[in-house]
Amino acid sequence: IRPLFLRSSGLTRPSSRAEGGGGEGGGGGRRPVMSEGYGAIPGMSPTANNNPAFAAAASSPDSFVGFFTRLGMTPESDHHRLDLAQFLLVACIVAGNFVHPFASAGAKLACVLHNIVSMFSVPALVIIAGFRNAELTPQRRRSVIAFLLVPYLLLQSVYLAVYIMLYWNVSFRDHPGRKDVDRADGELTYNWTLAKDWGPLSLATPFGNLWYLLCLTHFIVWRPFAIEVPHTVVIHTLLGCTMGYTTVGQFMSLQRAAALMPFYLLGHACRRHHIFFPWASSVPARACVASVALLALGGCATAVYAFGHRSSLIWEMSQSYHVVWGPKKYRWGALIQLSVYAASTAMSAVFFALVPPASVFYVQASTGENTAPGLTPEKGAGEGEGGGGRSHGGGGLWSGDPCGDCEEVDAEDELGAAADPLLVRGRRTGEARERDQKRPGAGAEGATNHLAVCYVRASKWGSRALCPLMYSFFVMIILEVCWCYNDTWTVPANGVVMTLHTILFFVLGLVVTAALSTRPACMTLGWLLTPPVLYSWVFEDGAGTGGTLNGGTSEPPSPA
Description:
By secondary structure, the chain is mostly helical. The chain has helices at about 15-20, 50-60, 65-70, 80-105, 110-130, 140-165, 210-225, 230-240, 255-270, 285-305, 315, 320-330, 335-355, 410-415, 450-465, 465-480, 485-490, 495-515, 520-525; strands at about 185-190, 190-195.
């Protein structure tokens, strides 16, 4: 039985049939095994020059691949780059959350920072999730329950218990900093609450960033149906534009899931067509990217400082148009949402263009045989035993895999599972290691390549990025209890003190993301995200489960 979540090395199991005689794929017309990284598709080379099928598709003027290839999109296969991008995106989301209370208090700098971060962070994160999507097999359906719905219910219950005890009905501090100001029910800081719409709290209204777990569930369940529709990205874009006229709101994150579904399907379409957003490798490309980024930053600053637009609800896509724009302008919500899609997609492309692949910093893989595309093979590395690409020893590819050697699988089964951010309680295997990063040409005993070490470390943090995303609001509650947000009640909104505190808390959000992404933090807090519930007495025991769904252990595979 194939595990739901593949080990996050992003490499497939070698198959003796595919490696023996009989031509490509092991003879008999079988699909060759994928031996590349996340972005590679079985039977497809990660480079267009060596890939006739990709070259033929790219040369077709009417094809999806041809259109986006002319826009500069290239085959993607460096999973370290995707992990790094995921870490940076989650860091931006958490930092934006940390300054959101200052934005709600009227601090203009906080409004600019929160708007510019909200413009691209969540859409780009959803694009990565869609790119790493996989077929919803019976094993994965059970893990959707075990690693999405169960953690949501657990964390939602804990958040509600803490928040209601501290800030609902009887607050532990009714007059925060000022005797003439009373804290309203559910008010965490001045004019800001974690209770969406200032309404009642319930298990059906996601708390903080828990909406992401529900949205992932909606994406995974709906995606097999969505891809049956032609031009599904366009159709779901139009559907997302009309969702703002409904009154669904925050209930089960249905509106947000419908609004973000086009980005998820865009990422999935990119994977199916062997392309992804490239990084800006040339000087003209970097100049273009910098110009677009500065234009977006200038636009946000102008909207805030010149026109007084401070709300970021337009980018969050979680409220109805009537709430976002009021009773007079909500009629134009669909057209505005269409422009939001365009701006968010453009800014996501700009972000990905600023994230370099691992090869730029000469990141060396653990073994030459197991090198993922985009990595520099380690000098003098030995090949895996048997010539099959399976390295021996503790750090080898798929070492300890309960499935053993499996037959080649379709792309629907292979990708995406390797990238799920939920599994945070183990180390990855078959990936680049920090101790192996040496300067180019320096040899095994040469000087350490510190840039490559930092790159590998940040990509590891990205593989555990769900932990800071889910727990960052606990840190914010602790900061509020320690009076760190009292300036929102007592200090002028656009004074020097508030501005300095905004910058400080934005940086603090980045630091908290890195701290919560470390292995000790994930091992301590990850038990709520990966509860040991994959037992046969919890789920209907299928054929060959052996009592549990993970090959005899309730512990999930290594993290993605």
